[in-house]
Amino acid sequence: MAMASYATTLLPPQLHYWNSILPDTTMPKALSQLVQPGKSGGPSQVFFFLEKDMHPGNGKKYRLAKNSTRATFLSRKTAESIPFSSSKMPQILHQYSLKPGSVEAIRINETIQECEGQGIKGEKKQCATSLESMIDYAAFKLGRNIEAVSTEVEKAAADVQNFTISPGMKNLSAAYKNKVIVCHKLNYPYAVFYCHAFQSIRAYMVPLRGSDGITVKAVAICHTDI
């Protein structure tokens, strides 16, 4: 979990809001970097695996580089002033000077469709278009005494290398009695997260060590509904 301190007078409004709603929760670097302009977020790669393979000593080749995306959070006021609906696609494309049918336009439409689509059975979901809306959703579902975690890469890693699971894996679902919300960053001009909660997932914090010595604290999510 990221341990970061900020001078109160220099905090952006979104971080003030985090501290007011979740005063005892440290914000992970992956989120705080999406508030600070010009900084990169956490790793963007997603890998698939079997839960039975998650044990110390097991390894696999990955590329865990830091995410260079510039899609940062907008303030809630700004985000709410911009259309975010499939029925408003012409206005959205005009907002970003994009042509219908372009790669960027297709990605925007796919993200909105994912947010508007019906969730799977037992899933409770919401797309957060601002950090404030993410905070409100998490606090509403879990309360204000929560732990926020994200995958963290110690430093820039080699292109592709073998990562081995180190001792110390933590079952977050068991620790918090399955009260877990998972938020995935979506492909959009600004930071939008798909947040969902349901009983059929298990979440872990998994320590990894690369063949070049780099260490990673990785969040692993297992879907047990399929």
UniProtKB/TrEMBL annotation:
SMART domains, alphabetized: BURP (SM01045)
Entry-linked Pfam families: BURP
Domain (BURP) ranges: 48-226
Stated name of the protein: BURP domain-containing protein
